[in-house]
Design brief:
The structure is a homodimer. Chain A is an alpha/beta fold. Chain A has helices spanning 15-28, 47-59, 71-85, 99-111, 126-134, 181-194, 249-259, 265-271, 278-301, 327-338, 365-379, and strands at residues 34-35, 94-97, 117-122, 138-143, 165-169, 197-201, 223-227, 240-243, 315-319, 340-341, 343-344, 356-360. Chains A and B meet through helix 1, helix 2, helix 4, helix 5 and helix 6 of A and helix 1, helix 2, helix 4, helix 5 and helix 6 of B.
Chain lengths: 380, 380
């Protein structure tokens, strides 16, 4: 008797991981690759975090923690909101999670029921759409184009009447759009007026270029999500956190107990030190800023001159419609012919992404400069 | 406008974690606790794993891996099946996961659609029930009592006509029941005849007392799940794995990309060494065996003489119906009056668990002996 394969296993792939695989295959075959496909710093964890991890390996049993994480790390995160934003967040509302990925899953399960409709930006981080779909929630694409500065603002919501929820990312992946405090407050009000739950993805906070990103952590009805992966340069440590609204604390705690037990313990011990590494981490951001300058200068010379604003995060989202109507094939060609790995826009926007590609630049300056050189030579 | 809280956030808690919280509160208030509530070794990772982790901290960036984990660890797991069981498992079918918890979530999403009916043993690991419920699948309790040796066998399935899936754990939590190769093969046949997907939870393999647990990894239609948490003594490292049937590989890979990105990287590098630590780890199992002997000798003297077989894992499941009809209140009283933390049976069996409690014994011999002494004194 043939066994069943569930319909919901048939969600689209996270295409950047497919590009990673193609790039890995190229390396395995003896080729070289400049990795502009994946949104992770080329650097490892900050030095003090590594030192703390060494110490913890020798001193701790590293068993399960409580499902919301260690008291010490939760307190340190609360302190971070106080110190950086001047926002008081009760430690009881802070949940440490298995990356921001774990936070999204818990948030979506706790806040939305099957059949609910949740707005997401297009283009936007593709996993929102896929996680929502996997748990039976309907993602509603909100086109976010040049008219709203490639940002999900209240203006971009014109014509949308009701939603059960809304996910907003600032700085955004892939456009780099950054919402100010005022723009974010307007979204919070829009959601309140309609009974929609706002999820504020702030995982690129700390990585902005001349603009300040607002936080929703002072709004007690918003689920605010952050991560140690991006600014803190610790992707593989799989640790994130969220600020949970009081009415969702118990639901999310129970889901976290059952679905995760607890986040990785060594990461939890070590990440307490991450908040004392501003000098090292801001050095990374200064490098991202230089890489961004290189690409904003050089890409137009390679013919890529229709670029999203890139005010934050470490991405450039380029309109490549003058070259292709199939960004997937286009990125494959670039990888095959130049060794530069980029991600096709279809990972971020099922409707329009075939006309776009994303370049991620949290690499060394030399790599980014070499990628720009190869793209220019390729487009000649 | 009041915001919505999803129905599915209203699943029952994983009660053992509530007991952990009560125990932590008692310690915070200056009390002492002997932790027989939680199924985690009191020991840390084996020495060679800790050494490998130190080396990896200095040598690796520790970024994301591919969603199924590092090629090296996947190969090492395939070798483990060959060496220990004589079973050839293609490395393409091995997925490294965020603990077995992550494996269960991925398996249930990929194999079952909302409304499907999946059999689970009662008593059994409570998170099966809650994860299934959270993703819209209906858990079907299969009473597993003394008549089938407290094991989920084909005999226990008498009267069940159709299921979309079946989850079986051997060694089982909480009864310690172990399925032989023959018993497991009969379950595989039962499922095949009915088109039910079997999930074989083998996370307590390596911890048995005079009996051998069969593996389902040689059955290509079964989802076989294992973990570094129990035998390998690495709960907080959050690493497990599964052997995925060919027809589910792509669905589970795509779900893993979107829901987890990848498992913790440092754990992946370090766990390659875990398979070379048999001497140290078998020493732990010898200690569990001594602790088991202590409890099987002493508990009857404390009046707890109706015990499940405890052939494997590190649990004793005791019928306490002669003392209470409310095991939750009973365990609270034991904690308050003796400092011994135990888990009420309601965590494992909503229907009958109010008459049972579970004692976990992967602690030091001194702790287990002291717990037995206190329980005897308390029952006098």
């Amino acid at each position: 008797m043939p066994l069943k394969v569930a319909q919901r296993g048939r969600i689209p792939p996270f295409i950047v991981m497919e590009v990673m695989q193609a790039a890995a295959d190229r390396v395995a075959a003896g080729g070289d690759v400049i990795h502009l496909e994946v949104g992770q710093p080329s650097t490892g964890a900050p030095r003090k975090v590594v030192e703390a991890a060494h110490a913890a390996l020798d001193a701790h049993v590293l068993g399960y923690t409580l499902p919301f994480g260690s008291a010490r790390l939760r307190q340190r995160i609360a302190d971070h909101y106080r110190d950086l934003y001047g926002v008081a967040v009760p430690v009881e509302r802070i949940a440490v999670t298995v990356g921001s990925s774990g936070a999204f899953l818990l948030a979506f399960l706790a806040a939305f029921d099957p059949g609910d409709r949740v707005g997401i930006a297009a283009p936007g981080y593709s996993c929102y759409r896929q996680i929502l779909t996997a748990v039976g929630v309907e993602p509603v694409s909100i086109p976010v184009g040049p008219a709203t500065g490639s940002k999900l603002t209240v203006e971009a919501l014109a014509g949308i009447e009701t939603l059960d929820g809304l996910i907003v990312a600032s700085p955004s992946n892939p456009t780099g759009g950054v919402l100010t405090d005022v723009e974010l407050a307007a979204l919070i009000e829009w959601c309140r007026a309609r009974g929609a739950r706002l999820v504020s993805d702030e995982i690129y906070h700390g990585i902005t270029y001349g603009v300040a990103a607002g936080t929703a952590a002072n709004a007690p009805d918003v689920i605010t999500i952050n991560s140690f992966s991006k600014y803190f340069s610790m992707t593989g440590w799989r640790l994130g956190w969220m600020v949970v609204p009081p009415d969702l604390v118990r639901g999310i705690e129970v889901l976290a107990q059952n679905l995760f037990i607890s986040p990785p313990s060594l990461s939890q011990v070590a990440c307490v030190a991450a908040f004392d590494c501003a000098e090292e981490l801001d050095g990374h951001v200064a490098r991202y800023a230089r890489n961004r300058d290189i690409l904003l200068d050089e890409l137009p010379r390679a013919g890529f001159d229709r670029l999203a604003p890139a005010e934050g995060a470490f991405y450039i989202y380029a309109d490549v419609s003058r070259y292709t109507n199939d960004s997937g094939a286009f990125c494959k060609r670039i990888l095959a012919e130049t060794g530069v790995a980029c991600t096709p826009g279809i990972d971020f926007d099922p409707a329009e992404g075939h006309r776009f590609m994303r370049l991620a630049y949290p690499r060394s300056e030399a790599e980014v400069a070499e990628a720009a050189r190869r793209l220019k030579a390729w487009k000649k």
